[in-house]
């Protein structure tokens, strides 16, 4: 079984977060260290440490990350100009919290995808 993370506690509202969306499959909240004017993390309510842990049974939940991202981009007023969705996997991918999460970032030009 995967180890519980800070995100699990946010889902259960045991620690404070600026939650902007929550349903039975996913939770979305504002990043505490935003990298853009809009920076929201969208996470599955089921603890999956990395993309490598996703199974066929998780497809509906993982698809919900994208439909919620679209809805939140519209609410944030960034859908028309554009935004970036980022999912990191493991250390070389830049993952810091081992509970899959999608970053929705926008509100300014994002620049090149990979620098360096």
TrEMBL record:
List the InterPro entries: Histidine_triad_CS, Histidine_triad_HIT, HIT-like, HIT-like_sf
Residues in HIT domain copies: 6-115
Q: Which CDD domains match?
A: PKCI_related (cd01276)
The protein's matches in Gene3D superfamilies, at most eight in alphabetical order, are given as: HIT-like
Gene Ontology MF term list: catalytic activity
Q: Which residues form the active site?
A: 101 (tele-amp-histidine intermediate)
Show where the record puts the motif Histidine triad motif: 99-103
Supply the name of the protein: Purine nucleoside phosphoramidase
- Organism, per UniProt? Photobacterium aphoticum
């Amino acid at each position: 079984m995967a180890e519980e993370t800070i995100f699990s506690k946010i889902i259960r509202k045991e620690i404070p977060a600026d939650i902007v969306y929550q349903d039975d499959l996913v939770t979305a909240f504002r990043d505490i260290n935003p990298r853009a004017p809009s920076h929201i993390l969208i996470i599955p309510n089921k603890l999956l440490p990395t993309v490598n842990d996703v199974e066929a049974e998780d497809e509906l939940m993982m698809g919900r990350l994208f439909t919620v991202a679209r809805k939140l981009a519209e609410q944030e007023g960034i859908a028309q100009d554009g935004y970036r969705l980022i999912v990191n996997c493991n250390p070389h991918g830049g993952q810091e919290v081992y509970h899959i999460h999608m970053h929705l970032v926008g509100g300014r030009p994002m620049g090149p995808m990979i620098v360096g």
